[in-house]
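Hey all, quick one. A colleague (J.T.) asked me to put the zinc ion job into the tracker so the inputs and the structure tokens live in one place instead of scattered across chat threads. No bug as far as I know, just bookkeeping. Sequence used:
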Amino acid sequence: MTNPINSYNIIPYIGKYVNYSDVYEGEKGQLDIELWVLDYNIERAKDHLIPEIKRMLKAFEHWFGPYPFYEDSYKLIDAPYAGMEHQSAVAYGNKYRFGFWGMDRSSTGHGMKFDYMIVHESAHEWFGNNITTNDIADMWVHESFADYSEALFLEYWYDKDAANEYNKGMRELITNKIPVVGNYGVNNEGSPDMYPKGSNMLNSIRHSINDDEKFRAVLRGLNKTFYHKIVDTKEIENYISDNSGFNYSKVFDQYLRTIQIPDFEYYFSEDAKKVFYRYSNCIEGFDLPIALDSGGTKIKIYPITKWNSSEITSAQSALFNESSIEKMYYLNVKEIVTEN
Ligand SMILES: [Zn+2]
């Protein structure tokens, strides 16, 4: 090995393994792919794992930048458990099936379009192994991005609608019983909500930026700036704010440190030329911008906890649709019907 490995990422594998090698032409040159599988799995390993690994590398190098451990190769290794992000030797126990053991965690159908374990565990090479938190209380940095990577994979190989639907589907798994960030200094993880809730937070931030190239530059910039580094949550939060053009500190506080899901309330003026809006059921100062964009018509508003308003055209007012806003933003959206 050339690169140091976090102690939790080292595991011995013992079994009757056989090896199969391939090469991926990636952003940093030739990346060796090595499969180590039990001898009776070799044929299906070649057929199933190699194409799926290459799809994963193509999508993630696009979004996150070069695979972070070219010197040590990318290895996938048969394991008796579901999977784990052992650095440059990812454990694989997904039974050579798409989905998670053949199931779609999002209940949307999109989860059956990829091998969950290859996509999720390999995403940790960037978020978890390249960028590592110094306290597991901040483990959202590993798991939220790994969960969101599943949507980004779908977006790269299918389309943005599939990604949004998948991400929204994962909301069913959120419990909101305790905050995502745990207690520091006592080896305490926060809520398992760090997976689907964190990924929905990231998708909300991404839509509020409403600039896919800028968002991709933030993802790639994180992996470049914190290359092979140990970080804490504030470094990641501040990097995203500093490089996206908006201070998201209250948004991070809301989703990572409370269990409330904000309500976004809106109504139109009688002549329909103005929209009034505010956030409630949230922390003081919660201010997630909302960008709505149909491709032609767009509007960006900056709701806060006090009522505010913007002038709108009738085309813009059509963008205010509860379910389409909720598909992009992790909010409870409520149109207030005023009585005349
Ligand atoms: Zn994970």
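Adding what we noticed when we looked at it: The two ends are 72 Å apart (CA to CA). Residues 120, 124, 143, 146 surround zinc ion (CB under 6 Å).
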